[in-house]
Amino acid sequence: MSLKSIDIEVFGRFIRVNCPDNNSSDLHYIANILSKRLEDLKEKTGVSNIEQLIFITALNVCYELEIEKQKSMHCVKHLKSRMLVLTEMINKSLMKE
Q1: Fewer CB within 10 Å: N-end or C-end of the chain?
Q2: How far apart are CA 96 and CA 18, in angstroms?
Q3: How many CA atoms lie within 13 A of 35 on its CB side?
C-alpha cells in the first residue's frame, strides 16, 4: 500500500497529509464532517478561537467514541452470554438423543 501526499481543507485551512492511495476520498469526506462540526460549534457557542474549537470538538469526538466503545462491549457481552445459553441448549439436546 503506497502513501500519497494530499491537501485537505478543514474549516477553511489547508493541511497536507499522507494517506494510502485508496483512502483519499474517505479522508476528504471526514475532513468535511470535521469542518461542519467546527462550524456548528462556532455558531452554537460563539467561540471564534480555532484552537479552542478544535479542542472542544476533539473532546466531543473522544467522548462519543468512548460511549460507542462501551455500547459495543455491552453488545459483545450480551452476545457471548446468549451464545453460552444456546451452546448449553444444543449440548443438552444432543445428549438426549
Answers
A1: C
A2: 61
A3: 14
- Give the length of the chain: 97
pLDDT the model gives residue 27: 94
2-20: burial string, b at 16+ Cβ within 10 Å, e else? eeeebebebbeeeeeeebe
First to last CA, the chain: 53
Per-residue pLDDT tens digits for 1-53: 788 999 999 999 999 999 998 899 999 999 999 999 999 999 999 999 999 99
Residue corresponding to grid cell 453488545: 75
Confidence (pTM): 0.75
Domains and CATH numbers, the chain: 5-95 (3.30.160.880)
What nine digits make up the cell of 73? 462491549
> CA-to-CA distance for 30 and 33, rounded, in angstroms?
5
Give per-residue pLDDT as tens, 47-61. 999 999 999 999 999
